[in-house]
Specification:
The complex is a heterodimer of chains A (882) and B (232).
Chain A: H1 6-21, E1 25-30, H2 37-50, E2 55-59, H3 66-72, E3 76-77, E4 81-85, E5 88-92, H4 95-101, E6 105-108, H5 124-133, E7 137-143, H6 151-158, H7 168-172, E8 175-179, H8 183-191, H9 199-206, H10 211-239, E9 252-255, H11 260-276, E10 280-286, H12 295-310, E11 314-319, H13 323-334, E12 338-344, H14 348-354, H15 357-364, E13 369-375, H16 386-411, H17 417-423, H18 425-434, H19 437-455, H20 467-515, H21 520-535, E14 538-545, E15 548-552, H22 562-574, E16 578-579, E17 591-597, E18 600-608, H23 621-681, H24 689-716, E19 725-727, H25 729-739, E20 749-753, E21 760-762, H26 764-780, E22 788-795, E23 798-804, H27 836-846, E24 850-855, E25 861-867, H28 872-881
Parallel strand pairs in A: 1-7, 1-8, 2-3, 2-6, 6-7, 9-10, 9-12, 10-11, 12-13, 20-22
Antiparallel strand pairs in A: 4-5, 14-15, 14-18, 16-17, 17-18, 19-21, 22-23, 23-25, 24-25
Chain B: E1 5-8, H1 12-25, E2 29-32, H2 35-43, E3 50-54, H3 62-71, E4 75-81, H4 85-93, E5 98-102, H5 106-121, E6 129-132, E7 135-138, E8 143-146, E9 149-151, H6 155-166, E10 171-173, H7 174-181, H8 190-204, E11 214-217, E12 221-224, E13 229-230
Parallel strand pairs in B: 1-2, 1-3, 3-4, 4-5
Antiparallel strand pairs in B: 6-7, 6-13, 7-8, 8-9, 10-12, 11-12
The chains are: A alpha/beta (882), B alpha/beta (232).
């Protein structure tokens, strides 16, 4: 069966899609220091440079080897960034410089290196990831013992645990180049002093260089590379659409437990997932009891989960009463084909008493292969807070029993004999419900013993005379035990569901609170107060507004440090959590979670905790995710509401302006009509002839200005709706000339009209307005002694109407002519609203035409209106039929 | 004694201007500022011959009283805004003779009034022949003379020219012309009209690219320029 599950395919293609834009990573993998990785990388780089690739050396450790240093010669070296750390100057890789430089290929030696504190990323491999994401190809080197999933294996036979590790995932898509050297040759080189070893680690490291260890390391490296090649091959087969013979349908689930052993199990699972090419999920099953784990245990669990995530697992937490059952259920839901689980070596007695989760899983998992990883670390079992808390509970249980017995002794004369054993159940039930299960069971024992000692003859001894009393005693002991056990169990279940209910109630309350707010400051304050009290942290909301960092929601924190600011910016840009306890900029005291919405990232939620504890406990992660979402939603809603209000206000303002313009225009028109009629009625002769002429022309100008304003307001309101009809432009031109009084003797306008131009489908009044504006303009902007020419012609079925003058022509930027309120230099002399051409353009476009402006070869301006003509045959053909 | 003109206008300033213009030309008038008053004055016998009607009246829409004024025997000239195409067409379809757009030119307004008065008072000697500027049309002989020479028109062109000549100076809406010449079925085929007008202009206009005889009223219709005379 070679069917693969949908999600693996999706993952596969997602990865491919990412690879498309990402830079490519080349990793020079060696079995041990000194095999010549850097040398080989530099050699290849020189070759690439010769091929024309822009190669830059980000970091290259030559360790003083002259032949290696020689290779650096021809390459461009990126300056290091100097970091001051506790008085020592450290030269670190300059990630910002590299990204700004954006070379074709960058060499970054020593992938497993840890960066100086205060760097953007704690680890160099994170720098490399960023470079790849920026689309830069990277070449790097790493030794096999630094690979995270092989960490245990290497430690197993070298007895050296390497702390600087590289997650396998980063190597998944890389091209691996094995730099191989046989162990003998390597030892020879070491003896010849050709291998650089740091002084402090020299002795420990030299333990590496025994033939057997080197052989083992070499085998590991070769196998790792072979697996990588194998995976790439199957990837290619899949991409090519050929299913191939890769192992499909496998899905791994690993049960993660607290304790150091959990990490070992996780690494093992990763190696298996690699072999099967299977997706894998790390599951934590938390029983009510396990929730009680605190302190170091909890930290360890969180670390184990983080490790699983960094090795490529998806994470899942399930609440469970019975861990084994929950794990098997979860495996079914995930359709896992393999379960990986750890099992410590414990005594049979311990297993008999406490049960073994691994045994449970093996017994219940049907059809699922269970891999049990034997654990060496002794403290595998979660260390429950037995010491203090348990002892105290036991004491309380004992006290309750003693008190009850004392009371019963006093009341005995008045009690029937049979009542005493029943009444003794009371302290047992009480202890089991209020205290821990163990205390309940102990109180059952105490109650039974006290019953025997104080109430069953012979009194004050643990012997029993009457056989009937033996039965009573046995029944009491049994009933006490069962009742105690049941009560304890019920309490545990209640606690688990109360926890869930509490979480839901908190979230519902939070959502309710946020839903009622409509103001930014207030929302931030309520969100921070609530999140702070729910998670027991300090919370702020940080936004970037106009490049300024704004900190809201918590009066105790109004500003943040530089490093925090960098973390905020990073969180906003990358949409990931940054700062303390994260992989990015963790020198910050705050942990920032981006508030992501459909409108983009609104800001970041900053969380801090005065103590050194983790800011977010693993079981709060779900709650935090919901809280972050709710906060982001509330902010999005406020922004949207703000925008809606703004739009409403704008619309209202527009409406008012339109109404105002309309009424002004109407109220102005009526008196203007009277003025025009009156001035025209006065004969322009006698002493005031000039004044009368001025009054006439100015009132006409005012009228045109008013018309322009009205038309402009119609355009702005989108109220231009052409009344389509068949239009003969000859008619429009004639009409315009009549309106401009250019149809009589002495007219300045001459026409050249092609009488056979097709009709256009248009609005005659809009066209009239366009031509009035153009011709009027031409008359205004050219000397009165010159002629204005109007041409009507047809070209390729379109109808062209040109207005040409002999004025001073137009400036170069003719597009700007059609802007609103655009006026030519010095055009104030002739006057105009500055709206004429803008209106002409809008009207022309409203009827589907175009308008252009230019200069004539012989001087003067030319405006051209092009209107799409209708097929001439259509119009005339139809008329001829009629 | 009858009045020549009935002024129906609610704006006192415009009313006074119109009165002044009419005074200067020696025409007599009555004035009304509401629709009700206008109807009352139109009923006075002998009635005024021409009504100058502003459509924006305080009591009623001016359009509504057009049929009553026409019924009373008045020629109606509507005062309207230039971009009110629908209003113009509606007024003409309701029986108005003509329209003048605001702001108006008093000379043009007076010419329109005179033309309307002439149509009202002209004799009806020969209903079959009309003279127009530069030519003459004879319906009986089915002949058109331009500048003394006979011009051959197609039947449609002839009908169109006759329709225009029958009501010289009056604006005929596209629809009215189409109904008269092509029939009710083609009342909305403006294309027919455009093509025929272009062809007609080529035959009767001195310069078809600058027509002076058949005048276009954008969006509304056509009118015959000048004053066609009935030939006695």
């Amino acid at each position: 069966m070679t069917q693969s599950t949908p999600s693996t395919d999706a993952d596969h293609y997602l990865r491919l899609a990412r690879q498309e834009q990402q830079g490519r990573l080349t990793v020079y993998l060696g079995a041990a220091p000194g095999v010549g990785k850097t040398y080989r990388m530099l050699q290849d780089a020189a070759r690439r440079q010769a091929e024309g690739v822009d190669v830059v050396v980000g970091v290259a450790e030559t360790h003083g080897r002259s032949e290696t240093a020689l290779l650096l010669g021809p390459l461009h070296i990126l300056p290091r960034r100097r970091v001051d750390h506790q008085g020592h100057a450290l030269d670190e890789f300059d990630i910002d410089g590299a990204i700004a430089r954006h070379p074709g290929l960058i060499l970054v030696d020593e992938l497993a290196h840890s960066n100086a504190p205060g760097s953007r990323h704690p680890k160099r491999w994170q720098d490399v990831e960023e470079l790849l994401a920026a689309g830069i190809d990277v070449a790097t080197t790493v030794n096999i013992q630094h690979i995270e999933s092989l960490n245990d294996v290497v430690a197993g036979f070298t007895h050296i645990r390497v702390r600087e590790t590289v997650p396998d995932q980063i190597l998944d898509d890389a091209e691996l180049i094995i730099v191989d050297l046989p162990p003998d040759a390597l030892i020879e080189r070491l003896a010849a002093g050709k291998i650089y070893l740091p002084d402090t680690a020299g002795r420990a490291l030299s333990n590496f260089f025994t033939p057997t260890k080197l052989a083992a390391l070499r085998e590991l490296a070769l196998r790792f590379a072979a697996r990588s090649v194998d995976r790439r091959l199957s990837d290619q087969l899949r991409t090519a659409g050929d299913e191939g013979d890769f192992v499909a349908g496998e899905r791994l689930m690993v049960a993660v437990s607290p304790g150091k052993g959990g990490a070992q199990v996780v690494r093992h699972a990763r190696r298996m997932a690699d072999i099967f090419h299977a997706p894998w999920t790390a599951v934590v099953a938390e029983s009510g009891r396990a929730r009680a784990i605190v302190g170091a245990q909890r930290e360890q669990l969180a670390d184990n989960l983080a490790l699983a995530a960094s090795l490529g697992a998806s994470l899942m937490t399930v609440a469970a009463d019975h861990v084994g059952d929950a794990l098997v259920d979860q495996a079914r839901q995930l359709r896992a084909s393999q379960i990986v689980i750890g099992k410590s070596r414990r005594s049979r007695w311990f297993e008999w008493r406490h049960g073994s989760i691994a045994q449970d899983v093996i017994r219940k998992a049907q059809g699922v292969a269970v891999h049990v990883v034997p654990l060496t670390d002794a403290d595998e079992r979660p260390d429950r807070p037995r010491e203090a808390a348990f002892a105290r509970d036991d004491m309380v249980a004992f006290a309750i029993v003693v008190a009850t017995v004392a009371l019963l002794r006093l009341a005995q004369p008045w009690l029937p004999f049979g009542a005493i054993d029943l009444l003794l159940l009371i302290p047992v039930i009480l202890s089991a419900t209020v205290l821990r299960l163990r205390a309940g069971l102990w109180s059952a024992v105490w109650a039974a013993l006290c019953y025997n000692f104080f109430f069953i003859p012979p009194l004050h001894s643990l012997t029993i005379d009457d056989p009937q009393n033996v039965i009573t005693f046995a029944v009491l002991a049994l009933v006490a035990a069962v009742v105690g056990w049941l009560a304890g169990r019920i309490r545990r279940q209640a606690e688990t569901s109360a926890g869930v209910a509490r979480l839901n109630a908190s979230l519902a309350r939070f959502a309710g609170l946020m839903g009622g707010l409509s103001e930014k400051e207030e929302t931030a304050r309520v969100a921070c107060r609530e999140i702070g009290s729910l998670l027991d942290v300090e919370a702020v909301i940080v936004t970037i507004e106009d490049e300024n960092i704004m900190v809201r929601g918590n009066d105790a924190y109004r500003r943040i440090d530089m490093i925090d600011e960098a973390a905020v910016r990073w969180a906003l840009e990358q949409g990931i959590a940054t700062g303390r306890d994260t992989g990015t900029l963790n020198a910050s005291d705050w942990q920032f979670h981006p508030l992501r919405t459909s409108l983009g990232t609104m800001g970041a939620l900053g969380l801090a905790r005065p103590s050194q504890e983790r800011i977010i406990r693993p079981d709060d992660a779900v709650m935090l995710a919901s809280l972050v979402d709710q906060t982001a939603l509330a902010h999005e809603r406020i922004v949207l509401e703000g925008q809606a209000r703004q739009v409403d206000a704008l619309r209202e303002r527009d409406r008012l302006r339109g109404a105002l313009l309309g009424s002004i225009a109407h109220d102005l028109r009526t008196p203007l009509t009277a003025v025009i009629a009156a001035t025209e009625a006065i004969p322009a002769e006698g002493a005031f002839a000039d004044e009368i002429r001025i009054a006439r022309s100015e009132s006409r100008r005012l009228q045109r200005f008013l018309d322009d304003l009205l038309e402009a307001s119609r355009i702005e309101h989108g109220a231009i709706e052409p009344r389509w009809e068949s239009v003969d432009l000859t008619d429009v031109i004639t009409d315009v000339l009549r309106a401009l009084r250019q149809d009589e003797a002495g007219a300045r306008v001459t026409t050249r009209i092609d009488g056979d131009c097709p009709f256009v489908s248009s609005d005659p009044l809009l066209l009239r307005h366009v031509l009035i504006n153009l011709i009027d303009n031409a008359l205004k902007f050219s000397p009165v002694t010159t002629q204005v020419e109007v041409e009507l012609l047809c070209r390729d079925g379109d109808v062209l109407c040109r207005v040409l003058d002999s004025g001073s022509g137009l400036p170069a930027d003719t597009d700007a002519l059609f802007d609103r309120f655009h006026r030519l230099e010095g055009s104030d002399r002739v006057g105009g609203s500055g709206l004429g051409l803008w209106i002409a353009k809008n009207f022309t476009e409203a009827v589907g035409g175009t308008i252009t402006a230019g200069n004539r070869a012989g001087g003067g301006a030319m405006f051209e209106v092009i209107l799409p003509g209708r097929p001439k045959d259509e119009a005339e053909g139809r008329a001829a039929d009629a | 004694m009858h009045k020549d003109v009935l002024i129906v206008e609610d704006e006192p300033a415009i009313r006074r201007l119109l009165m002044g213009a009419l005074d200067r030309t020696g025409l007599t008038y009555a004035e009304a500022s509401t629709a009700a008053e206008a109807l009352r004055l139109a009923a006075v016998q002998p009635h005024p011959l021409v009504a100058l009607l502003d459509l924006g009246l305080p009591d009623r829409d001016g359009l509504e009283i057009i049929p009553q004024l026409v019924e009373a025997g008045l020629a109606v000239i509507v005062l309207t805004a230039r971009d009110a195409t629908d209003e113009k067409v509606a007024a003409l379809d309701l029986g108005a003779d003509d329209f003048v757009t605001k702001p108006f030119d008093s000379a043009e307004l007076l010419a329109r009034i005179r033309s309307a008065l002439r149509r009202k008072t002209g004799n009806r000697a020969d209903p079959q022949r009309r003279a127009f500027e530069g030519g003459m049309i004879d319906r009986e002989a089915h002949a058109v003379m331009i500048g003394g020479a006979a011009v051959a028109l197609t039947p449609r062109e002839f009908d169109l020219l006759w329709a225009l000549c029958e009501k010289p100076g009056r604006v005929l809406t596209h629809r009215a012309l189409l109904e008269t010449v092509w029939g009710l079925a083609h009342r909305d085929d403006v294309d027919y009209l455009r093509v025929a007008i272009r062809a007609l202009r080529k035959k009767v206009e001195t310069d078809p690219s600058r027509p002076k005889l058949i005048i276009n009223e954008p969006g509304v219709g056509y009118r015959l320029a000048g004053s066609a005379q009935r030939v006695a």
